Amino acid sequence: MSDIGSTTGAVLAEGMPGIVDDWSADKEAFHVPWGKAMMWIFLLSDTFIFSCFLTSYMNVRMSTTVPWPNPSEVFALTIFGNHMPLILIAIMTFILITSSGTMAMAVNFGYRKDRVKTAILMLATAAFGVSFVGMQAFEWTKLIEDGVRPWGNPFGADQFGATFFMITGFHGLHVTGGVIYLSIIAFKVYRGDYDKSNNYEAVEIAGLYWHFVDLVWVFIFAFFYLW
Amino acid sequence: MAHVALADRGQALSHPHSFITKYVWSQDHKVIAIQYGITAIAVGVVALVLSGIMRLQLGFPDTFSFIQPSEYYQFVTMHGMIMVIYLLTALFLGGFGNYLIPLMVGARDMVFPYLNMLSYWVYLLSVIILMSSFFVTGGPTGAGWTLYPPQAIMFGTPGAEWGIILMLLSLFVFIIAFTMGGLNYVTTVLQARTRGMTLMRMPLSVWGIFTATVLGLLAFPALLVSAIMMTLDRVLGTSFFMPAMVSMGEQTNYDGGSPVLFQHLFWFFGHPEVYIVALPAFGIVSDLLSTHARKNIFGYRMMVWAIVGIGGLSFIVWAHHMYVSGMNPYFGFFFATTTLIIAVPTAIKVYNWVLTLWRGNIHLNTPMLFAIGFIFTFIHGGLTGIFLGNVVVDLPLSDTYFVVAHFHMVMGVSPILVVFGAIYHWYPKITGKMFDATLGKAHFWLTFLGTYSIYLPMHYLGFLGVPRRYFAYEGIDFIPQSALDLNTAITISALFVAVVQIIFFYNMIWSLFKGKQAGSNPWGATTLEWQTPDTPPIHGNWGPELPVVHRWAYDYSVPGAEEDFIPQNVPESEVDKAAS
Ligand code: HEM
Ligand SMILES: [Cu+2]
User: Fold this and answer.
1) Are residues A53 and A19 in the same domain?
2) Each residue of B554-572: pLDDT tens digit?
3) Whose alpha carbon is nearest atom 24 of ligand 1?
4) Is the ipTM of this complex over 0.85?
């Protein structure tokens, strides 16, 4: 065994022992502001929530005895006489991904301490979020008109409606919460709070949350609409 | 971006002056800790009273007309849930976590005090919701603390009207409260330590609480999700967990759900939960043993890795609670193996505690008695756990009093002994007063021997096959009269132990007013919380300068040193000066 792992030597340890030394350094385990670390930890916990939801969904979908409804039929729209499967959901996904783009730009302008542009881009992100939730409301309405309910539906297994409303609803609440959160931060940016403290990290932390909500959507999209 | 470490930043803490902001809406981690502690102990007393009522029924059947079978189920359920979640989890993390983390790592407060304050108030709300279920139509739920569907939400189970809904709601609210607090504890440990306090210099108490909090943040999601799904099943009539069923002669509207899915989700939370309660106890007991034996903890690094290792492994053993659920038998093989593997780091910890005592200069102070008592009860409960971890042994023993005896030893009595030990240990710091040692020791011996006389006989009942969660055992052929007599004896011990706790409460309250001044470091301990300029520590904890840490937390009886302990914030140069 080599003695690379010694923590007292002046030479920086390599590999695994190096990582351990680094993490056990005094004061801070991660060289980021505490707010950011806290957001990361929260998102890790939230990841477990969504994983439990999606695993439960897979479980009921595989164990139910009644066939699962065909998503490309259920989620089809007829626009100008054209029957288009998954069109609405494609638009919704596109919007959410775009909003991640505007959020990333807001963070960028935040670094440059550009008060007005940061605020505007954050509000744009929030507006995309609102339109996403709006379209989700439209989709729910249409499904409900077609007879899909949490306790049953005409197309197949009861659990289809149950898992769909529960998981997209839970995600929709995350988006709604994010819209409120972004708007508050945008307002504070605009008011100049972060110029006073000379510290725009709140923008970046809000951005982390928003990107996470988008990322979760990609998984929900894949599991519900493409499987 | 240049970035100043949190510990080096001059923090602007608001120093409130009115009574309300100082003691009610307080953002001071110490006040929040006490609020958490008192609330948790108060609900714990409710759970204790419930267990007394259950024991009355079991010991003296047909004597008390106010205990009917459905009440019995409700009391079992509320007793179990309160003890595990609302008492132990809240007390260890919200109580001790809040009090000890900032003091022990040398911070002025948690990183986000406002969120920390909210955490307590939301916890209080969850307690109020839970307690309100005693007063609604149908009373609290009687589904058992495991809340297994389908019976949990079927009419016929007591409390199916409102009790189960309030229980699920209360758990939901509790998880939100826990998350707000937990994010603070984890982030404070990771990011807000003072200079010199590396992770590998932290006292094991902090390691235990920290790892338990991480477990909580990753395990409670499963409970949250299952609570949401069960609420939907109950309120909206979805069928996540509910198969097609005939109830009271009628086909229900449920169809195609999976009750075993609930069991998986529940135990994915439930097993780590055991360690959420155990790891803080492990950590605290290590510090108590080392301090009162005036000896460094044996194998500090091994202890840390064992805590972290147990934490990780605890996520892959959950289905050892489900050997009788009808899951695939190969799962039983896998989960039995992981369960036995987790016994290895656990055993390492036990050896290290015993080796810490070996040739120590043991002072049998009250906290030390409780710490040593813990080693006994924990070894005891741990060994029966190895029995139950093996599929073939578990099959006949599952759902008998053997299981009741096992989990009360390992996660009931053991953590509670540590709670008492820890309260006695830190009482002088929290209040500035010394408790009455004679009463403390009497409390220990009566509690320790009393709990043994409750739970030791239960193993025997379990071997006889006496099932758990039963209201009465009369007229069951395979249960002999001697078992029923034993139940009477157990009940007498249980009531005795319950009454004995009055000594503890009396001691705590009396000493608060009449106790001797304790001084800042009555035990001669090395960790930072004993080095504060004021006792009890004021808001902000430290004077103008944060302490600087120069050594690990276990420099006891160092040869050549002036005293038999060197506090963590004493630099090497001063020790040399004293020695020369
Ligand atoms: C003097 C103290 C205690 C006494 C006398 C006591 C007594 C009991 C009794 C009689 C039962 C019901 C057994 C049955 O009918 O199946 C029970 C269940 C239980 N107890 Fe305790 N207990 C005490 C302390 C604790 C503590 C500190 C915990 C904390 C972990 C705890 C956790 C539980 C749990 C989880 C259950 C199972 C509930 C269920 O079956 O749903 N108990 N206890
Ligand atoms: Cu377990």
Assistant:
1) no
2) 999 998 888 899 999 999 8
3) B412
4) yes
